[in-house]
Amino acid sequence: MLAASAIFATPAIAGESASGGFRISLNVPVVCDLDAQPFELDASGQRFVGQVQEFCNSNRGFQVFASHRMLEQDESISVDYGGSRSTLDLTGMSPVAFRSGARFGYVPVSIEATNLSAPIALEFGLTAI
Fold first, then answer.
1. Strand 76-81 vs strand 103-114: parallel, antiparallel, or unpaired?
2. Cys-Cys with 71: which of 23, 56, 90, 121 at CB 3.0–4.6 Å?
3. In this structure, are residues 113 and 41 in contact, taking their beta carbons and an 8 Å threshold?
4. Phi, psi of 56 (to 5 degrees)
């Protein structure tokens, strides 16, 4: 006995007034990072210069901070971060620049210190907006 089977597919036919479509949505997580290259003392011996690589995909931008030891009253440190000049707070956490929009690239940074009573190290970090 021989058996045969066949499968037939019939295409769907929509009427003239029918509409169709689909929607795709995607959530992209915010990813941000800073990477400081080694800083060097410039020829004048008065400031340290270097660059920081920024990466942040937040369209709203991000705030860059410098963390450091608490400063004495007569100590002063100023930072020029890509054209934004700021003086560090005595507290040990200082905002240094607001960067608008998503970014990727290198930013020139210079640091000048006055009347330091002890060595200091700065660590740059960011908060996405």
1. antiparallel
2. 90
3. no
4. -155, 130
Q: What is the pLDDT of residues 46-104, one digit of tens each?
A: 899 999 999 999 999 999 999 999 999 999 999 999 999 999 999 999 999 999 999 99
Q: What is the DSSP letter of 66?
A: E
pTM for the full model?
Answer: 0.76
Collect all residues with Cβ–Cβ distance below 8 Å to 92 and sequence separation of at least 6.
67, 68, 69, 70, 71
Which residues have C-beta within 8 Å of that of residue 125, sequence separation ≥ 6? 34, 64, 65, 66, 67
Q: Which two tokens stand for residue 92?
A: 């040990």
The two three-digit tokens of residue 42, written as one number: 């410039």
